[in-house]
Write a structure and sequence with these properties.
Elements (H helix, E strand, L loop, with lengths): L6 H6 L4 H11 L10 H13 L5 H9 L16 H10 L3 H21 L10 E11 L8 E3 L2 E11 L4 E9 L4 H6 L8 E4 L6 H9 L3 E5 L6 E6 L8 E9 L10 E9 L4 E7 L6 H9 L2 H13 L10 H24 L6 H9 L8 H6 L20
């Protein structure tokens, strides 16, 4: 008879404990700890995300109701509400950022091993975007966004090999998307996808010089001159394909030459104008590549709808950042399991069903591959017969 621990415990086994403790020492996160370990805090906040707990009381109460099922994850006792609140407020949120970055490397290796690529070109495909997380200014007075509103912004880089979040950073709500993008460095040959919120011609020029390619939507007020029109088929969705010179940087020479496409999109029933510095790709491929940028929008939707990232269990800046960082940490093992499973899971459906089965004793991979199959029957131990005579 196979003996397994709870599904939640099996998910936590994906995070090597020694690696986590090394990150704790690196950030000196337990310097003033008195019995409550960072691992217990990590388990509690992951339960907050995956279990969709609304408050600190639901987190601590839900873990306390497990009745000993926390032994397998390495937690001796469920935390007290005040203890967890104090840890979220004072322990460095950078610990959770480090855990996210290191676990991403493991998931990236799994995605590379499976070799699921949607497009034939060899470029590394990344999407850049950001989402605003609104906060009540009366409660979160440190997060001023507008006169009567508070907010922080989550910036994300999505790797299209497995659709994994490669990079994340949390900033003030007023921070412009392109301001964060300028601070990042990408390997030569990478292809970036971003929308009109990243319009900065001088940054585009810098990417071009670094041999980084991009596809974006062009703003209507961008000035350019047509250098050479390219032939298009009359029956295709490509209305125009032309080489243009951006007026603002025309003195920079050949790097100012870009490719402009007008494409009809049947989904939105409108014409979209794309700009790219990759001249050799087919026009239909460029349109399909930008269409795949929708994956980062779906990722943000899954993050906000399936996890706890819009309502917070703490009010300090540190507590909010701890909870925000545990959201992409929680989504990574779900993505990892989705890649390994032979069943056609959607991300939101998998998160929703996991929420109801966190403390069920079932082999995780067997359930992922065949979720509708009944669990194996437990074999009752044979009763001993007593001979009376």
């Amino acid at each position: 008879m196979n003996r397994v621990c709870s599904i939640f415990s099996q998910m936590l086994q994906q995070f090597p404990r020694l690696e986590f403790e090394a990150a704790v020492r690196e950030h000196e996160a337990e310097r003033h700890a008195r019995g409550f370990r960072c691992w217990s805090q990590f388990v509690a906040m992951l339960f907050c995300q995956l279990g969709h707990a609304q408050t600190l009381r639901e987190i601590t109460g839900g873990l306390a109701a497990c009745e000993g099922k926390l032994r397998h994850p390495g937690v001796d006792a469920p935390p007290k509400r005040s203890t967890l609140a104090y840890a979220n407020e004072h322990r460095p949120w950078q610990l959770f950022q480090t855990v996210f970055e290191r676990f991403y490397q493991r998931c990236r290796a799994e995605a590379a091993h499976r070799g699921q690529r949607k497009f034939r070109f060899k470029h590394k495909l990344l999407s850049l975007d950001a989402t605003l997380i609104p906060l009540c200014l009366i409660v979160f007075d440190w997060a001023l966004y507008r006169r009567s509103k508070g907010a922080v912004k989550l910036h994300l880089v999505l790797d299209h090999d497995g659709y994994l979040p490669q990079f994340a950073v949390v900033t003030a709500g007023k921070t412009a998307n392109v301001e964060v993008a300028r601070q990042q460095r990408f390997e030569p040959g990478t292809m970036l996808l971003f929308d009109r919120g990243y319009t900065d011609i001088h940054w585009w020029l810098e990417l071009w010089r670094q041999k980084v390619f991009f596809v974006t939507r062009l703003k209507d007020n961008t000035e350019y001159g047509v250098v050479k029109p390219r032939a298009v088929r009359p029956d295709s969705e490509i209305f125009r394909d032309e080489v243009v010179l951006l007026t603002k940087i025309q003195d920079q020479g050949p790097v100012a030459l870009m490719r402009r496409l007008e494409v009809w999109t049947g989904e939105k029933q409108e014409t979209m104008v794309f700009l790219t510095n990759r001249p050799k790709l087919a026009a239909a491929t460029i349109a399909a590549v930008y269409r795949d940028r929708w994956q980062i929008e779906q990722f943000f939707r899954a993050l906000k709808q399936s996890l706890r990232i819009k309502a917070f269990v703490g009010t300090s800046a540190n507590a909010v950042l701890v909870q925000i960082w545990t959201a992409p940490i929680a989504i990574l093992p779900v993505h990892y399991l989705q890649m390994r499973s032979s069943f056609g899971w959607s991300l939101s459906n998998l998160v929703a069903l996991l929420r109801h089965r966190l403390f069920v004793y079932r082999d995780l991979m067997a359930w992922l591959n065949q979720p509708s199959e009944s669990p194996p029957e437990l074999l009752a131990a044979e009763q001993l017969t007593l001979e009376l005579g």
